[in-house]
Amino acid sequence: MNPPLRFWMSRPAKALWAARTALDRAYESALAHRAPKLYAWRIRRRRGAAVQPEESARYARAVADDYEAIALAAGVITSRDDLWRGRRVLELGPGDLRSVGLIARARGADRYIAVDAYDIESRDEEKNREVYERVAEREGLPRDQWRELLAGTTVRANFADAVSDGRRVDLVISRAVLEHVRDLPGLFASLAPVLADDAVLIHKVDLRSHGMHRDNVLDFLLFPEAVYQQMASHLDLPNRVRAPAYLTLGARDGLRVVHASVSHRTSLDTVRALRPHLPPAFAQLPEEELRVLGLWLVQVGPRHPAAAPALDAGALADAPTDGVSAF
Ligand SMILES: C[S@@+](CC[C@H](N)C(=O)[O-])C[C@H]1O[C@@H](n2cnc3c(N)ncnc32)[C@H](O)[C@@H]1O
Fold first, then answer.
1. Distance between Cα 239 and ligand 1 center (Å)
2. Ligand 1 centroid from CA 276, angstroms
3. Which of 115, 175, 180 best tests ligand 1's pocket when mutated (most atoms within 8 Å of CB)?
4. Which residue's CA is the closest to the ligand 1 atom numbered 14?
């Protein structure tokens, strides 16, 4: 019997889980392909139902504070205010609300621009107001000032539309987005022309399973690539790109990674239990690289003075915890 077959035959419950997960996602993906607007509406409804204004405002503030803490740790700013003041900020994949943009503006950003591949921004004006008022309040502003700060900001589907005034962006932020991007080199190639030469880009990348595991957090890597393509083709599933690839991201477009650190790591035992059974592209990665399940990355443009350290995905330090949220 061939080894993959022996693996699945000896674990019938896991095989059943894998078959059901693959079929469910492939079906959903086919639906999303045929009816993309319906799919976006379903995501908006699901995400909207989960929004609790107080919690949502707290999350947004933690996200903004985290960008400051990581930028400080990376040495691209010397004080927290420096991150936003006078900058033109582009948020990639804001999700259902522009709360982080509101905070950026409240903290001095000159402009906030948002780009998302999916039309999932919340249409629930009442709920949005409840969140934005709380975000403004937490920034020490009058509750109603969010309207002025967010006026004229919209979520665009591509970078060219987002900077139609021709002025380049000097700060890019993203959280839990890059791991969903199907074509990372393509994304950076279209982002690069809208960046200032000394731009700073800060990303938090979530390399976990997004719920697609049964008894090992790496189970989602078991699906052969061809099967996973069918599951993910029109869904917002993780791209399964592993840590090493992120360390050279954007290099072709003149960007340099000046900080990378690990926000989540799994145990060596977890990796060893599954690695021999993974498809070759994952099985050949060193154990230490497979352990990395979350990354902070800071990139800079070609004329930024920060120096790029030599980075090895298997030997990355843990992310700073000082001033960084547990979200
Ligand atoms: C998990 S949500 C994270 C939302 C938000 N950043 C947060 O922290 O809650 C992922 C976001 O990335 C967006 N996204 C997925 N693929 C994208 C792409 N190729 N380009 C831009 N945004 C993308 C999704 O539509 C969604 O808004």
1. 12
2. 32
3. 180
4. 93
* 3-state SS record for the chain: CCHHHHHHHCCHHHHHHHHHHHHHHHHHHHHHHHCHHHHHHHHHHHHHHHCCHHHHHHHHHHHHHHHHHHHHHHCCCCCHHHHCCCCEEEEECCCCCCHHHHHHHHCCCCEEEEECCCCCCCCCHHHHHHHHHHHHHHCCCCHHHHHHHHCCCCEECCHHHHCCCCCCEEEEEEECCHHHCCCHHHHHHHHHHHEEEEEEEEEEEECCCCCCCCCCCCHHHCCCHHHHHHHHCCCCCCCCCCHHHHCCCCHHHCCEEEEEEEEEECCHHHHHHHHHHCCHHHHCCCHHHHCEEEEEEEEECCCCCCCCCCCCHHHCCECCCCCCCCC
pLDDT values of the chain reduced to their tens digit, one per residue, 327 residues: 677 788 999 999 999 999 999 999 999 999 999 998 888 888 888 877 777 999 999 999 999 999 999 999 999 999 998 999 999 999 999 999 999 999 999 999 999 999 999 888 988 999 999 999 999 999 999 999 999 999 999 899 999 887 878 889 999 999 999 999 999 999 999 999 999 999 999 999 999 999 999 999 999 999 999 999 999 999 989 999 999 999 999 999 999 999 999 999 999 999 999 999 999 999 999 999 999 999 999 999 999 999 888 899 889 999 998 889 988
* Per CATH, domain 17-315 is 3.10.310.50: no
Ligand 1 site, residue 120, Cβ cutoff 6 A: yes
The domain ranges of the chain are: 17-315
Q: Is the CB of 60 under 6 A from ligand 1?
A: no
